[in-house]
Amino acid sequence: MGRNEELIKKIQEHAFRIDSYDDLDAIINEAGDADYVLLGEASHGTSEFYSARAELTKRLIKEKAFSFVAVEGDWPACFTVNQYVKGYKEGTAREALQDFNRWPTWMWSNREVLDFVTWLKNYNAANGKRAGFYGLDVYSLWESMEEMIRQLEKIAPQDVEAAKKAFSCFEPFDRRPENYAISASYYGEDCTEEVVKVLIELQKNRKKYDQDEEADLNLEVNSLVMLNAERYYRAMAKGGPDDWNIRDTHMVTALEKIMASHGAGAKAVVWEHNTHIGDARATDMADEGLVNVGQLLRETYGDRVYTVGFGTHRGSVTASREWGSKVEEMTVPEAQIGSWEDVLHQAGAFDKYLIFNEKNAQKFNGVLGHRAIGVVYNPEYEHLGNYVPTRVSKRYDAFIFLDKTKALTPMQG
Protein backbone atom coordinates (compact mmCIF):
# COMPACT_ATOMS: atom_id res chain seq x y z
CA MET A 1 0.00 0.00 0.00
CA GLY A 2 1.42 3.38 -1.01
CA ARG A 3 2.03 6.21 1.41
CA ASN A 4 -0.89 8.26 0.15
CA GLU A 5 -3.23 5.28 0.32
CA GLU A 6 -2.33 4.86 3.98
CA LEU A 7 -2.84 8.56 4.61
CA ILE A 8 -6.21 8.51 2.83
CA LYS A 9 -7.38 5.71 5.11
CA LYS A 10 -6.22 7.64 8.18
CA ILE A 11 -8.15 10.71 7.02
CA GLN A 12 -11.26 8.62 6.44
CA GLU A 13 -10.88 7.16 9.94
CA HIS A 14 -10.43 10.46 11.79
CA ALA A 15 -12.25 13.13 9.74
CA PHE A 16 -15.55 14.77 10.70
CA ARG A 17 -17.88 15.40 7.77
CA ILE A 18 -19.29 18.93 7.31
CA ASP A 19 -22.80 19.18 5.90
CA SER A 20 -23.61 22.42 7.72
CA TYR A 21 -21.86 24.76 10.14
CA ASP A 22 -23.66 22.95 12.96
CA ASP A 23 -21.21 20.11 12.34
CA LEU A 24 -18.32 22.17 13.76
CA ASP A 25 -19.19 21.38 17.38
CA ALA A 26 -16.00 19.40 17.97
CA ILE A 27 -13.80 22.37 17.01
CA ILE A 28 -15.82 24.73 19.23
CA ASN A 29 -15.44 22.32 22.14
CA GLU A 30 -11.70 21.90 21.57
CA ALA A 31 -10.97 25.59 20.99
CA GLY A 32 -13.38 27.16 23.44
CA ASP A 33 -11.09 27.12 26.47
CA ALA A 34 -8.13 28.71 24.66
CA ASP A 35 -7.23 32.39 25.04
CA TYR A 36 -6.18 32.71 21.40
CA VAL A 37 -8.05 30.93 18.61
CA LEU A 38 -6.29 31.43 15.28
CA LEU A 39 -8.44 30.84 12.18
CA GLY A 40 -6.55 30.68 8.91
CA GLU A 41 -7.28 30.77 5.20
CA ALA A 42 -5.47 29.36 2.18
CA SER A 43 -6.21 32.50 0.14
CA HIS A 44 -7.29 36.09 0.69
CA GLY A 45 -10.14 35.75 -1.77
CA THR A 46 -12.23 32.64 -1.02
CA SER A 47 -15.83 33.13 0.10
CA GLU A 48 -16.13 29.96 2.16
CA PHE A 49 -12.99 30.65 4.18
CA TYR A 50 -14.44 33.96 5.32
CA SER A 51 -17.91 32.54 5.93
CA ALA A 52 -16.68 29.51 7.88
CA ARG A 53 -14.43 31.69 10.04
CA ALA A 54 -17.34 34.02 10.66
CA GLU A 55 -19.60 31.16 11.77
CA LEU A 56 -16.93 29.77 14.10
CA THR A 57 -16.31 33.25 15.49
CA LYS A 58 -20.01 33.89 16.12
CA ARG A 59 -20.21 30.71 18.16
CA LEU A 60 -17.03 31.48 20.09
CA ILE A 61 -18.39 34.92 20.96
CA LYS A 62 -21.86 33.67 21.87
CA GLU A 63 -21.03 30.34 23.55
CA LYS A 64 -17.48 30.80 24.85
CA ALA A 65 -17.41 34.54 25.69
CA PHE A 66 -14.65 35.56 23.31
CA SER A 67 -13.93 39.28 23.52
CA PHE A 68 -12.99 40.34 19.99
CA VAL A 69 -11.79 39.34 16.54
CA ALA A 70 -8.42 40.65 15.27
CA VAL A 71 -7.62 40.40 11.57
CA GLU A 72 -4.81 40.72 9.06
CA GLY A 73 -5.87 44.25 8.24
CA ASP A 74 -4.80 47.83 8.90
CA TRP A 75 -5.49 49.22 12.36
CA PRO A 76 -7.11 52.55 11.32
CA ALA A 77 -9.65 51.02 8.91
CA CYS A 78 -10.46 48.18 11.30
CA PHE A 79 -10.84 50.61 14.18
CA THR A 80 -13.57 52.39 12.23
CA VAL A 81 -15.41 49.05 12.07
CA ASN A 82 -14.71 48.50 15.77
CA GLN A 83 -16.28 51.84 16.63
CA TYR A 84 -19.31 50.99 14.50
CA VAL A 85 -19.98 47.53 15.96
CA LYS A 86 -19.68 48.90 19.50
CA GLY A 87 -22.14 51.73 18.86
CA TYR A 88 -19.57 54.53 19.10
CA LYS A 89 -20.00 55.45 15.43
CA GLU A 90 -23.22 56.04 13.52
CA GLY A 91 -23.97 54.86 10.00
CA THR A 92 -24.26 51.50 8.27
CA ALA A 93 -22.03 48.45 8.05
CA ARG A 94 -21.31 49.27 4.41
CA GLU A 95 -20.19 52.79 5.38
CA ALA A 96 -18.00 51.36 8.14
CA LEU A 97 -16.10 49.29 5.56
CA GLN A 98 -15.39 52.25 3.26
CA ASP A 99 -12.08 52.99 4.96
CA PHE A 100 -10.68 49.83 3.34
CA ASN A 101 -9.78 51.85 0.26
CA ARG A 102 -6.16 50.84 -0.29
CA TRP A 103 -5.23 47.86 -2.47
CA PRO A 104 -6.03 44.98 -1.92
CA THR A 105 -9.42 46.42 -0.99
CA TRP A 106 -11.27 43.12 -1.40
CA MET A 107 -9.57 41.50 1.59
CA TRP A 108 -11.90 43.26 4.04
CA SER A 109 -14.28 45.25 1.86
CA ASN A 110 -16.38 42.30 0.70
CA ARG A 111 -19.88 40.95 1.18
CA GLU A 112 -18.75 38.16 3.48
CA VAL A 113 -17.17 40.63 5.93
CA LEU A 114 -20.17 42.94 5.52
CA ASP A 115 -22.44 40.12 6.70
CA PHE A 116 -20.23 39.42 9.73
CA VAL A 117 -19.91 43.09 10.70
CA THR A 118 -23.69 43.45 10.47
CA TRP A 119 -24.12 40.41 12.73
CA LEU A 120 -21.57 41.70 15.26
CA LYS A 121 -23.23 45.11 15.43
CA ASN A 122 -26.64 43.53 16.01
CA TYR A 123 -25.30 41.01 18.53
CA ASN A 124 -23.64 43.73 20.60
CA ALA A 125 -26.75 45.92 20.53
CA ALA A 126 -29.11 43.09 21.46
CA ASN A 127 -26.96 41.67 24.27
CA GLY A 128 -25.35 44.74 25.78
CA LYS A 129 -21.93 43.48 24.64
CA ARG A 130 -18.95 45.24 23.11
CA ALA A 131 -17.20 42.47 21.19
CA GLY A 132 -14.66 44.27 19.03
CA PHE A 133 -13.03 44.16 15.59
CA TYR A 134 -9.37 45.18 15.31
CA GLY A 135 -6.57 45.20 12.73
CA LEU A 136 -3.11 43.81 13.42
CA ASP A 137 -1.13 44.68 10.30
CA VAL A 138 1.76 47.09 9.88
CA TYR A 139 1.26 48.72 6.48
CA SER A 140 -0.70 51.84 7.48
CA LEU A 141 2.19 54.22 8.16
CA TRP A 142 0.55 57.35 6.74
CA GLU A 143 -2.98 56.45 7.82
CA SER A 144 -1.81 55.83 11.39
CA MET A 145 0.08 59.11 11.36
CA GLU A 146 -3.05 61.01 10.30
CA GLU A 147 -5.20 59.16 12.83
CA MET A 148 -2.79 60.03 15.64
CA ILE A 149 -2.98 63.73 14.76
CA ARG A 150 -6.80 63.60 14.69
CA GLN A 151 -6.81 61.77 18.01
CA LEU A 152 -4.41 64.20 19.66
CA GLU A 153 -6.45 67.17 18.48
CA LYS A 154 -9.37 65.72 20.44
CA ILE A 155 -7.70 64.47 23.61
CA ALA A 156 -4.32 66.25 23.93
CA PRO A 157 -4.12 69.42 21.79
CA GLN A 158 -0.98 70.45 23.64
CA ASP A 159 0.92 67.56 21.98
CA VAL A 160 -0.26 68.15 18.41
CA GLU A 161 2.47 70.51 17.21
CA ALA A 162 5.32 68.28 18.39
CA ALA A 163 3.76 65.30 16.62
CA LYS A 164 3.20 67.23 13.39
CA LYS A 165 6.79 68.45 13.42
CA ALA A 166 8.13 64.94 13.86
CA PHE A 167 5.84 63.44 11.24
CA SER A 168 6.79 66.09 8.66
CA CYS A 169 9.95 64.04 8.13
CA PHE A 170 7.84 61.70 5.98
CA GLU A 171 6.36 64.40 3.73
CA PRO A 172 9.01 64.23 0.96
CA PHE A 173 8.15 60.60 0.22
CA ASP A 174 4.68 61.31 -1.23
CA ARG A 175 2.93 58.49 0.72
CA ARG A 176 4.96 55.94 -1.23
CA PRO A 177 6.62 53.42 1.09
CA GLU A 178 9.04 52.28 -1.61
CA ASN A 179 10.42 55.83 -1.85
CA TYR A 180 10.99 55.92 1.88
CA ALA A 181 12.52 52.42 1.89
CA ILE A 182 15.08 53.32 -0.78
CA SER A 183 15.97 56.63 0.86
CA ALA A 184 16.40 55.06 4.29
CA SER A 185 18.29 51.98 3.15
CA TYR A 186 20.64 53.40 0.54
CA TYR A 187 21.03 57.07 1.42
CA GLY A 188 20.76 56.93 5.20
CA GLU A 189 17.89 59.42 5.15
CA ASP A 190 15.33 58.03 7.55
CA CYS A 191 12.86 59.32 10.15
CA THR A 192 13.70 56.93 12.97
CA GLU A 193 14.90 59.54 15.45
CA GLU A 194 11.85 61.78 14.91
CA VAL A 195 9.39 58.90 15.25
CA VAL A 196 10.97 57.41 18.36
CA LYS A 197 11.19 60.77 20.10
CA VAL A 198 7.52 61.63 19.68
CA LEU A 199 6.32 58.10 20.48
CA ILE A 200 8.30 58.04 23.73
CA GLU A 201 6.69 61.33 24.72
CA LEU A 202 3.22 60.07 23.84
CA GLN A 203 3.80 56.91 25.85
CA LYS A 204 4.83 58.97 28.88
CA ASN A 205 1.60 60.95 28.66
CA ARG A 206 -0.72 58.09 27.73
CA LYS A 207 -2.31 57.68 31.15
CA LYS A 208 -3.34 61.33 31.11
CA TYR A 209 -5.31 60.91 27.89
CA ASP A 210 -9.03 60.33 27.63
CA GLN A 211 -9.80 56.60 27.64
CA ASP A 212 -13.41 56.85 26.46
CA GLU A 213 -14.27 54.79 23.39
CA GLU A 214 -10.77 53.22 23.50
CA ALA A 215 -9.05 56.48 22.58
CA ASP A 216 -5.95 55.49 24.54
CA LEU A 217 -5.72 52.06 22.83
CA ASN A 218 -6.19 53.72 19.44
CA LEU A 219 -3.32 56.09 20.12
CA GLU A 220 -1.08 53.35 21.51
CA VAL A 221 -1.48 50.94 18.61
CA ASN A 222 -1.20 53.64 15.95
CA SER A 223 2.06 54.64 17.65
CA LEU A 224 3.23 51.04 17.48
CA VAL A 225 2.27 50.85 13.80
CA MET A 226 4.29 53.96 13.03
CA LEU A 227 7.36 52.63 14.80
CA ASN A 228 7.24 49.18 13.20
CA ALA A 229 6.06 50.32 9.76
CA GLU A 230 9.10 52.56 9.55
CA ARG A 231 11.30 49.57 10.45
CA TYR A 232 9.39 47.31 8.05
CA TYR A 233 9.80 49.56 5.02
CA ARG A 234 13.50 50.04 5.69
CA ALA A 235 13.99 46.26 5.95
CA MET A 236 11.90 45.62 2.83
CA ALA A 237 14.45 47.38 0.61
CA LYS A 238 17.30 45.23 1.91
CA GLY A 239 15.72 41.81 1.31
CA GLY A 240 16.05 38.77 3.56
CA PRO A 241 13.73 37.65 6.36
CA ASP A 242 13.72 40.86 8.41
CA ASP A 243 10.68 42.56 6.88
CA TRP A 244 8.52 39.43 7.28
CA ASN A 245 9.69 38.94 10.87
CA ILE A 246 9.12 42.59 11.78
CA ARG A 247 5.59 42.35 10.41
CA ASP A 248 4.60 39.16 12.23
CA THR A 249 6.26 40.22 15.48
CA HIS A 250 4.34 43.50 15.22
CA MET A 251 1.06 41.64 14.80
CA VAL A 252 1.73 39.65 17.97
CA THR A 253 2.63 42.77 19.94
CA ALA A 254 -0.49 44.58 18.72
CA LEU A 255 -2.61 41.58 19.67
CA GLU A 256 -1.10 41.51 23.15
CA LYS A 257 -1.83 45.20 23.63
CA ILE A 258 -5.47 44.68 22.66
CA MET A 259 -5.70 41.72 25.04
CA ALA A 260 -4.18 43.77 27.86
CA SER A 261 -6.67 46.57 27.25
CA HIS A 262 -9.54 44.09 27.71
CA GLY A 263 -8.26 42.95 31.09
CA ALA A 264 -8.21 39.58 32.83
CA GLY A 265 -10.18 36.86 31.10
CA ALA A 266 -9.96 38.37 27.62
CA LYS A 267 -10.09 35.91 24.71
CA ALA A 268 -9.22 36.61 21.07
CA VAL A 269 -10.17 35.16 17.70
CA VAL A 270 -7.57 35.92 15.01
CA TRP A 271 -8.25 35.84 11.25
CA GLU A 272 -5.10 35.63 9.14
CA HIS A 273 -3.63 33.63 6.28
CA ASN A 274 -2.38 30.12 7.04
CA THR A 275 1.16 31.38 6.44
CA HIS A 276 0.80 33.62 9.49
CA ILE A 277 -1.25 31.51 11.91
CA GLY A 278 0.17 28.05 11.16
CA ASP A 279 3.35 27.35 13.14
CA ALA A 280 6.30 28.27 10.90
CA ARG A 281 8.46 25.60 12.55
CA ALA A 282 6.37 22.93 10.80
CA THR A 283 7.25 24.31 7.34
CA ASP A 284 10.29 25.28 5.30
CA MET A 285 9.84 28.85 6.54
CA ALA A 286 12.05 27.94 9.49
CA ASP A 287 14.93 27.10 7.14
CA GLU A 288 14.70 30.63 5.73
CA GLY A 289 14.92 32.25 9.16
CA LEU A 290 11.24 33.23 9.20
CA VAL A 291 8.99 33.29 12.25
CA ASN A 292 5.25 33.92 12.30
CA VAL A 293 2.29 34.74 14.51
CA GLY A 294 1.38 31.11 15.20
CA GLN A 295 4.90 30.18 16.24
CA LEU A 296 5.43 33.25 18.43
CA LEU A 297 2.11 32.81 20.24
CA ARG A 298 2.68 29.09 20.81
CA GLU A 299 6.17 29.75 22.17
CA THR A 300 4.78 32.26 24.67
CA TYR A 301 1.34 30.85 25.55
CA GLY A 302 1.57 27.13 24.77
CA ASP A 303 -1.75 25.29 24.88
CA ARG A 304 -3.63 28.55 25.48
CA VAL A 305 -3.35 28.88 21.67
CA TYR A 306 -5.58 26.88 19.29
CA THR A 307 -4.86 27.02 15.55
CA VAL A 308 -7.18 26.02 12.70
CA GLY A 309 -5.89 25.81 9.13
CA PHE A 310 -8.04 25.91 6.00
CA GLY A 311 -7.72 24.52 2.48
CA THR A 312 -9.59 23.68 -0.72
CA HIS A 313 -9.21 21.29 -3.64
CA ARG A 314 -10.51 23.49 -6.47
CA GLY A 315 -12.88 26.32 -7.37
CA SER A 316 -12.36 30.05 -7.91
CA VAL A 317 -10.69 32.90 -6.06
CA THR A 318 -10.54 36.71 -6.04
CA ALA A 319 -6.96 37.93 -6.58
CA SER A 320 -4.70 40.00 -8.86
CA ARG A 321 -2.02 38.89 -11.30
CA GLU A 322 0.40 41.61 -10.21
CA TRP A 323 0.83 43.73 -7.09
CA GLY A 324 -1.52 46.71 -7.28
CA SER A 325 -3.24 45.59 -10.48
CA LYS A 326 -6.94 45.01 -11.13
CA VAL A 327 -8.88 42.47 -9.14
CA GLU A 328 -10.06 39.36 -10.97
CA GLU A 329 -12.03 36.19 -10.37
CA MET A 330 -9.68 33.35 -11.24
CA THR A 331 -9.98 29.59 -11.50
CA VAL A 332 -8.29 27.57 -8.76
CA PRO A 333 -7.16 24.36 -10.48
CA GLU A 334 -7.44 20.94 -8.90
CA ALA A 335 -4.81 20.51 -6.23
CA GLN A 336 -1.40 19.19 -7.23
CA ILE A 337 -1.26 15.39 -7.15
CA GLY A 338 0.21 14.19 -3.87
CA SER A 339 -0.43 17.47 -2.05
CA TRP A 340 -2.29 17.69 1.27
CA GLU A 341 -5.36 19.06 -0.51
CA ASP A 342 -5.26 16.30 -3.13
CA VAL A 343 -5.09 13.58 -0.48
CA LEU A 344 -8.00 15.14 1.43
CA HIS A 345 -10.04 15.16 -1.79
CA GLN A 346 -9.19 11.53 -2.50
CA ALA A 347 -10.40 10.66 1.00
CA GLY A 348 -13.88 11.87 -0.05
CA ALA A 349 -14.99 14.72 -2.32
CA PHE A 350 -16.87 16.53 0.44
CA ASP A 351 -16.18 19.09 3.16
CA LYS A 352 -14.53 17.72 6.28
CA TYR A 353 -12.25 18.58 9.17
CA LEU A 354 -9.59 16.89 11.25
CA ILE A 355 -8.67 17.51 14.87
CA PHE A 356 -5.09 16.63 15.75
CA ASN A 357 -4.42 15.27 19.23
CA GLU A 358 -2.03 13.01 21.10
CA LYS A 359 -3.70 9.91 19.70
CA ASN A 360 -3.52 10.77 16.01
CA ALA A 361 -1.04 13.63 15.46
CA GLN A 362 1.80 11.31 14.49
CA LYS A 363 -0.35 9.88 11.69
CA PHE A 364 -0.47 13.28 9.99
CA ASN A 365 3.12 14.30 10.62
CA GLY A 366 4.60 13.53 7.19
CA VAL A 367 5.77 16.34 4.92
CA LEU A 368 3.33 17.23 2.12
CA GLY A 369 2.91 20.25 -0.12
CA HIS A 370 0.13 22.51 1.24
CA ARG A 371 -1.33 25.14 -1.10
CA ALA A 372 -1.08 28.86 -0.28
CA ILE A 373 -2.61 31.59 -2.47
CA GLY A 374 -1.85 35.25 -1.82
CA VAL A 375 -3.33 38.50 -3.11
CA VAL A 376 -1.12 38.01 -6.17
CA TYR A 377 -1.89 34.75 -7.95
CA ASN A 378 -1.22 33.16 -11.33
CA PRO A 379 -3.03 29.80 -11.43
CA GLU A 380 -1.08 28.51 -14.41
CA TYR A 381 2.18 28.81 -12.49
CA GLU A 382 1.05 27.76 -9.03
CA HIS A 383 3.07 24.53 -9.17
CA LEU A 384 6.22 26.70 -9.16
CA GLY A 385 5.72 28.27 -5.76
CA ASN A 386 2.27 27.96 -4.19
CA TYR A 387 2.87 24.75 -2.23
CA VAL A 388 4.52 24.96 1.19
CA PRO A 389 6.19 21.77 2.51
CA THR A 390 4.28 21.17 5.73
CA ARG A 391 3.92 18.79 8.68
CA VAL A 392 0.21 19.49 9.02
CA SER A 393 -0.42 18.15 12.53
CA LYS A 394 2.50 20.20 13.87
CA ARG A 395 1.43 23.33 12.03
CA TYR A 396 -2.21 23.30 13.20
CA ASP A 397 -4.41 21.90 15.97
CA ALA A 398 -7.24 21.31 13.48
CA PHE A 399 -7.78 21.60 9.74
CA ILE A 400 -10.94 22.47 7.80
CA PHE A 401 -11.09 21.24 4.20
CA LEU A 402 -13.71 22.71 1.87
CA ASP A 403 -13.62 20.59 -1.27
CA LYS A 404 -14.89 23.12 -3.83
CA THR A 405 -14.95 26.84 -3.11
CA LYS A 406 -15.83 30.07 -4.88
CA ALA A 407 -14.42 33.57 -5.08
CA LEU A 408 -15.58 36.12 -2.54
CA THR A 409 -17.55 39.19 -3.67
CA PRO A 410 -15.68 42.51 -3.44
CA MET A 411 -17.66 45.62 -2.54
CA GLN A 412 -15.31 47.74 -4.64
CA GLY A 413 -12.76 47.12 -7.36
From TrEMBL:
<keyword id="KW-0808">Transferase</keyword>
<dbReference type="GO" id="GO:0008168">
    <property type="term" value="F:methyltransferase activity"/>
</dbReference>
<dbReference type="InterPro" id="IPR007815">
    <property type="entry name" value="Emycin_Estase"/>
</dbReference>
<dbReference type="GO" id="GO:0046677">
    <property type="term" value="P:response to antibiotic"/>
</dbReference>
<dbReference type="InterPro" id="IPR014622">
    <property type="entry name" value="UCP036794_erythomycin"/>
</dbReference>
<dbReference type="Pfam" id="PF05139">
    <property type="entry name" value="Erythro_esteras"/>
</dbReference>
<protein>
    <submittedName>
        <fullName>Protein-L-isoaspartate O-methyltransferase</fullName>
    </submittedName>
</protein>
<keyword id="KW-0489">Methyltransferase</keyword>
<dbReference type="GO" id="GO:0032259">
    <property type="term" value="P:methylation"/>
</dbReference>
<dbReference type="InterPro" id="IPR052036">
    <property type="entry name" value="Hydrolase/PRTase-associated"/>
</dbReference>
